[in-house]
Amino acid sequence: MPPDRQPKQRRSAISDDIKRQICEWAEANKNEKHHEIAQHFNEKNLNVKIDRSTVSKILKEKDKWKVVVSAEVSTKTF
Hints:
By secondary structure, the protein is mainly alpha-helical. Helices cover 49% and strands 0% of the residues. InterPro entries: Homeodomain-like_sf, HTH_ABP1_N.
């Protein structure tokens, strides 16, 4: 009998506004680790699952996300 498999996690779009908030919050809380930032935003935004690696990718491009002013939904997914 094959082992029980966990269902694959679906990708979900993270809005540009949330990415901007992640960058701002990370800058204000410089001592927080990436997994702690992800945990904070997962508690804050229950409809979006953010992993540590996603936070790392967002913070690599923080200059790009800090200038975003519109709250439109992003089509880019991680």
